[in-house]
Amino acid sequence: MPPRAFSLDLSRRSSYVCKSCLDSLRSANATAAPWLARPSSSASRRVRAPPISSRRPPAAPAVPAIPSPAELQRMLAEELERPEPETNGGALDINFYTQEAPGKLRRLRDKDEFSTINDGLDTEIATAIDDLEKQMINTAKMLQRMEKTGGQDKAEALRKHFKKTLRLQYKGKTGPEAEEYGLLRIAGFSGPRQRTVANLNTFLARDSVVKGGIPRAKDVAECWKFYSAARKTLSLAWDNVPREVWNFLWMVLSWEGEGVENPNRMQHIYVLAKDMQAAGVPLRDSQQLLAIEAMFIEGWEEEAIESWKKAVVTLGSKPDTFADYWELGVRMCCLHGDTDRAQRAADTLLKSSHPPNARILLPIIRAMAAKEATVAQSWEAYTDMRTLLGESMTIEDYDEVIAIFLTSDCTEYALQAFVDMMFSGAVDIRGKTRLPLSVGNHFFIGKWLKRLIGVGDLEGAYKVVVFAQNKGITSSPIQLNGLIGAWLRSGSAENQEKAEALAWSMIRARLDHVKLRQRRDVVQFYHYDPPATEKKDGEAEFICQTRATAETFSLLAENYCQRRLHGRLQELFEVLKQAEIGTTSFLMNQLIRSYSQNGEAEAAASLYETMTKEQHIRPDGHTFLTLFNSLSVNRLVQRDPELAKRDMASARQFFRDMVEADWTFDSPKIFAQLPRTILFSMLKAKDYRGTIVAARAMKDIFAFHPPETLLIELATGAGSLQVKTKRNMERLVGGRKTIETLMKKHRMELIKAGHPGVDMTDEEKINELHDVLEKLVLLKAGAQNVAQKDVEPLLQEAAREMGVYDIVVARNAAEIARRRKLDQQMAAGLV
């Protein structure tokens, strides 16, 4: 039997109420006590329950509805308007009973027990509501007293603050489509496992979660973290999870908006859908479709397809889900291998009154192209899609179709699709031994290769090369070099092997061509057919007929140098001589760098001398950057004094060759690296005179001016302070103080010479940087107090040795102009 509530009805007598209580009630009614119109506590308001006969037993304890902000504001206003209650000194004693069995009544201990039995609230929740009411009443009284004592302004400010707090506390969550989720809280759990539910509640209550209505990647990750931890506890009583919480969890875990990576999205949806099914929470139509797809992706393919079939009457007939339902069926059936059912589903969709989406045929094209027996049907599905799309078919659609046929080794169909894209279906090449002239040329094939390489389909591009050569079309070296470079840049070991195989195949073609050119009988050239070598799996290896160029060797040389394969690089240069291809400065630089990385600095310098003086290879800025980097002060962690002395002579010789060589900067990157490397190399080798001469020479021939950051790095003695350790930060602070001191010294010298020391021109600022650099070098040399007249003779000697006497000392304008390494275009780009 449900508990019987006592109803405060003065017109009805009950045998269960004692006489003293009735007398008290009559006296209270006679005196018309004001508390009858306004209860003084939450318990007295609960007394006003409907009659026992009209009440239904509660099915389960329910969480009470939290008052909205408007209701809370109205309650606060009523409290402010009502006067203080007048008490008559008496208290009404009310007894509460409950009927536990027919004819058996039990008197309740107090009003708290009556409240628990009457409304089914947890003691914790009821206590929280009572506390909230008391706080509201106390707050209203406090504001009323403040207004009576003259604090109207302060009371009004507090009232606005309380209203704002209530709005922030009870506004709930808002989703991407402005949907409101209300108060997100799971109650009804206790015991040691309640901690996981409490953590989930804390997460749901955060203001930072789904801020602005859009979930972030962090929200998705943390949502799954807390929910997965609480699942075991929640499964003990799924009914305690409100529907708003389920909807919010679904919205977050199924989100795949821009900038949010959710790689485990389908797994999370699958688990969440199972939990909602266990909790008896019905899924919306869109949620059912997503749950079926998640089931399929998680490996339950047959079960997902069966669920999809059963939903044909509901989801497959509703206008809102019709298109999504049949498209999902097409994708699942294609992946499952049931192309017949997929075709029927696509026909249902395309023949319906809904706007047809012909791109739903793409999964069918892919599934049919994967089987040799249905390739022709795949092509028919492609033609149907192209007909339905008409002019709305985009280049991306063609790219996807081409990728499908290339992946399935149907290169001829892929070429036909590319021809359709280029000629709007006016040319047919299928089944023809010889391609039409408009298609069968390396320019047309080159366009295709360029597009395939551009979209990253490198394997497809290689298949096109093989197919074109079988059709008598030899791809140009530029196209194949582009494919080799893309393979090498990918960083994959498999792609590097493919790149090396194709490059060496091109090199063999070049060597064969050189041998044939050296023969006296030219007729044999036309009957030459290189033998095909066998692969490990028995398939004939592709023998490329495109001959290698210097770029092919350069790509391999750079890759071998990066991988420190010094032996392979030496082998490559031996083959380069046999191929009768002139060595370029790029190849020379790679070989010099390889020798330097291999610890053979002397061999690197000797190679440079041989290639530049005997083979007359023209060096460039990268050559001298490589040479300066080969010095021991830039290679060894532990400095060797003997090697440092050799570095001093080598650095001066490299600088002399650099000034005399005819080259110009080709990029801003080398313009920033070369002067910096030269200064650091000479300073670390303790060639202080050479450092000053190099700085003065580079000012004229490089238009180089040391920035303040470089001066600080030179002062610290470290080439890079990117790693922010405590030691590096201390060195950085010390270097900055040193540069600031030298700048102050330079300003004081200017002031002594009559300069105001402020409002300096651009030229004066540049001169200041150079002067600070020279003062820094002298400071490191321990000659900061040496007079300038004593330093100049030493600098002149170093200038002659470095080949810049006419530039630094004589100031020969013609010589400066002739040795300048910065052309007008490069100078304009730097400005």
UniProtKB/TrEMBL annotation:
<dbReference type="InterPro" id="IPR050667">
    <property type="entry name" value="PPR-containing_protein"/>
</dbReference>
<dbReference type="InterPro" id="IPR011990">
    <property type="entry name" value="TPR-like_helical_dom_sf"/>
</dbReference>
<protein>
    <recommendedName>
        <fullName>Pentatricopeptide repeat protein</fullName>
    </recommendedName>
</protein>
<feature type="region of interest" description="Disordered">
    <location>
        <begin position="33"/>
        <end position="65"/>
    </location>
</feature>
<feature type="compositionally biased region" description="Low complexity">
    <location>
        <begin position="37"/>
        <end position="57"/>
    </location>
</feature>
<dbReference type="InterPro" id="IPR002885">
    <property type="entry name" value="PPR_rpt"/>
</dbReference>
